[in-house]
């Protein structure tokens, strides 16, 4: 497996670079790693007459990697421009267009990514106002269009004057790096986990409602209809909130 760090910051050795470095340090040494600094690449959009050779090179690196670490600071409450420009220039290659101009995942489908962003804003203010949300959302939108699967995200706040990563943030990055080696295995078990969750809900609801009937707190008429509708509705709500908490809602610290 190969893990590719893509750094889209103004600073080659800034906070964002340190976060990527720490994640890569955590990656199992049996895997290959590489980091590219987008400022080193003078890419331009493809034209009808000419495909951009710098984009060719970058596209090759993306294709040969299994996991991408997409790391860019939050500038003006949004994704840093160099990373956004990279996504914009790469659009024609990231997705396939049908006859109606709709986009579809193409050659990058089922690769994985971890997103990283950071900002000066304090943890509490970011938690309340979501300064870093738009940066993460932009990354997610592009990756989702390309069919690339999200593994996790890392957010660092309070970056003003930071020279070294705080110990807790460094260990979070190392842990995320270690987890990258098992991303393929985790995808395969997601459906299995939801099926397990359904049966857990069904068994617990049967036990709870059975006890209620035994205690005379629940009517016996239409028991199975009440029971099955409760299981289905409760499972749908629980699965929805779990999906929101683990995938949709962005980290803010
Ligand atoms: C052009 C620019 C715009 C920025 N805008 C914001 C912002 O809107 N909110 C914020 O909290 N920090 C903002 N920052 C601070 C950066 O997000 C912060 O310094 C980040 O940690 C820089 O990462 P780096 O060390 O990799 O360059 C901005 C920095 C720059 C250079």
UniProtKB/TrEMBL annotation:
The keyword Transmembrane helix applies. It comes from Ligilactobacillus acidipiscis. Signal peptide: none annotated. SUPFAM superfamilies: Flavoproteins. Coiled coil: none annotated. This is Flavodoxin family protein. The chain crosses the membrane at residues 194-218, 224-248. The keyword Membrane applies. InterPro entries: Flavoprotein-like_sf, FMN_Rdtase-like_dom, ISF_SsuE-like. Keywords: Flavoprotein, FMN, Membrane, Transmembrane, Transmembrane helix. GO terms for molecular function: oxidoreductase activity. Residues 1-98 form the NADPH-dependent FMN reductase-like domain.
